[in-house]
């Protein structure tokens, strides 16, 4: 089966490099993607929005034969959900890495600081302590050295969803900075921020306690968690 790996903000396909050796052992075909505008620091990001990122992954799905699994980290989870909405009959499963599905009209994060029409990786003080667990000084330096500015509209564009068959696609949520019990409790309480997640018919949860970037802080464990969630090849 084909597995598309969608990175979160500021990251390209290479961000999955330390995770992939474990996944390669599953026998699935892996497709780590670099989303439009994230090709390099010097890439043209003007005019690129969330719909463009979703369309790029939809095009890859259309190029492949048979069922596809999507793995989305952070903001890449919103992209994955948009792809499911566009191609619900092609997606066998979605695996969210410290992420979850956005509801129609929601944006990923419209509070990130915009600089000259794009969103560079902010100062670490912008993030919460839970985001930065296990991200030591060396990992922070390596992350900042590789970080590519995110197109501003990707962070703030509202997602548009039209096909309720998206709720039929099974998902696994790998919870990192907050335990999955918080998600379950929030759903039970009717919290608006998990309203879309609450409508998905089949959801499994896996806890991988670390910060928001497990591909850097716990790459082997993340690979194992994703591998365990994949359908049998």
UniProtKB/TrEMBL annotation:
Listed GO MF terms: hydrolase activity
SUPFAM superfamilies for this protein: alpha/beta-Hydrolases
Record's keyword terms, sorted: Hydrolase
InterPro entries: AB_hydrolase_1 (IPR000073), AB_hydrolase_fold (IPR029058), Sec-Metab_Biosynth_Hydrolase (IPR052897)
Domain AB hydrolase-1: 3-221
UniProt protein name: Alpha/beta fold hydrolase
Organism in which the protein naturally occurs: Agromyces agglutinans
Phylogenetic placement of the source organism: Bacteria, Bacillati, Actinomycetota, Actinomycetes, Micrococcales
């Amino acid at each position: 089966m084909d597995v598309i790996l969608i990175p979160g903000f500021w990251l390209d396909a290479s961000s999955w490099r330390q995770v992939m050796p474990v996944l390669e052992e599953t026998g699935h075909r892996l497709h780590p993607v670099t989303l439009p505008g994230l090709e390099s620091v010097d890439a043209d990001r003007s005019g690129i929005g969330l719909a463009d990122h979703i369309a790029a992954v939809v095009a890859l799905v259309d190029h492949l034969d048979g069922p596809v699994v999507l793995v989305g980290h952070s903001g890449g989870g919103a992209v994955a959900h948009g792809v499911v909405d566009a191609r619900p009959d092609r997606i066998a499963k979605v695996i969210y890495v410290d992420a979850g599905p956005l509801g129609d009209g929601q944006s990923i994060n419209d509070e990130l600081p915009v600089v000259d029409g794009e969103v560079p990786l902010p100062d670490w003080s912008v993030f919460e302590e839970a985001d930065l667990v296990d991200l030591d000084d060396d990992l922070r330096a390596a992350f900042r050295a590789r970080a590519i500015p995110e197109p501003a509209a990707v962070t703030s564009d509202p997602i548009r969803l039209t096909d309720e068959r998206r709720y039929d696609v099974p998902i696994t949520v790998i919870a990192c900075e907050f335990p999955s019990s918080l998600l379950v409790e929030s759903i039970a309480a009717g919290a608006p921020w998990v309203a879309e997640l609450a409508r998905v018919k089949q959801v499994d949860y896996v806890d991988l306690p670390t910060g928001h970037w497990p591909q850097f802080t716990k790459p082997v464990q993340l690979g194992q968690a994703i591998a365990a969630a994949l359908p049998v090849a």
